Amino acid sequence: MKFLSPVRPSPIAGSWYPGDAAVLKSTVKEYIDTASVPGLPGKVVGLISPHAGYIYSGPTAGYAYRCVVGADYDTVVVISPLHDYRPEPFLTTAYEAYATPMGKISVDQKLLSSLEEALAKKTGLQIVPHARDREHSLEIQLPFLQFALVKPFTLLPLMVREHQPGPLKEFAFALAEILKGKNVLLVASTDLSHFFTEEQANHLDGFMLEQIHQFSPEGVLRAEEEGTGSACGNGAVAVVLWAARELGGKTVTILHHTTSAETTGDRSQVVGYGAAVICGD
Q: Which of 226, 225, 241 is nearest to 278 (CA)?
């Protein structure tokens, strides 16, 4: 893969989250310190975390990242939706690194090449590099990871536009195949329902979170298709659940749920946010 430029500059620092490194670190620390999580049944294999501006979803994201404070992973795989239109089902960055105010995170080019080869062999599908993207949902996770993890890590950034179970499952299995035996963390970036009343949102979000709790990628995709639940990153969540199971994940614990009404006070049109952790032995 040819990279357009060495480092992807952040298009959202200073708007979606603080642009000053010290303020950003303090903000993330407060979200994580405020969160309280139960005792976990095993090693953390994956997280599910929201991706709105920090003033809206940061407190909920803090619950997910509280689970990995002080943890040591060599690579983090962040899988998000892509909100801009692109026809390709699976994408990655066209850059060698992501930049946030807290520093640079290198893309794991070796793992990315291995995934491209495994996916092409299994399905003939490609992972298409995306340049000059404005996508917030992947980047919004990075300062939390930079604060929580005990040492620098490489990043495998993946963006999903596919919503059909077949290709998503093949993608997840190809991903798990190249990650087996490695010290990695999976992160699915998703918000929940959008622009329903808070009462409706609580119902839709509750159903979607139950599918996640049941470790059911099929249920996540079906809920979205049938309108019984909603998550803009449903494809990313499904991939992480399938891959996590292949990598030893056994349980999903729902950690927190809220809506944008907590920040705005508007309960007539809200966005839902949830946090969850996937654990293995």
A: 241
pLDDT at 281: 86
CA dihedral over 143, 148, 153, 159, signed as positive or negative: negative
Domains of the chain: 27-279 (3.40.830.10)
Residue 1 has pLDDT above 50, yes or no: no
* Per-residue pLDDT reduced to its tens digit, 18-64: 999 999 999 999 999 999 999 999 999 999 999 999 999 999 999 99
Task: Look at residues 183, 188, 156, 186 and name the one whose alpha carbon lies nearest to residue 74.
Answer: 183
The residue written with tokens 């970036």 in the block is 189
Beta bridge partners of 274: 257
Cα angle value 221/223/226 (rounded, 5°): 105
Query: What would the pLDDT profile of 134-190 be if each residue is shown by its tens digit?
Result: 899 999 999 999 999 999 999 999 999 999 999 999 999 999 999 999 999 999 999
Tokens 């975390």: give the residue: 49
85's CB contacts (< 8 A; 6+ apart) are none
Flag whether pLDDT at 122 surpasses 90.
no
Phi, psi of 202 (to 5 degrees): -60, -35
CA angle 180, 182, 184 (to 5 degrees): 105
Tell me whether strands 251-259 and 270-279 are parallel, antiparallel or unpaired. Answer: antiparallel
CA atoms within 13 A on the CB side of 127: 31
Cβ count near 138 (within 10 Å):
25
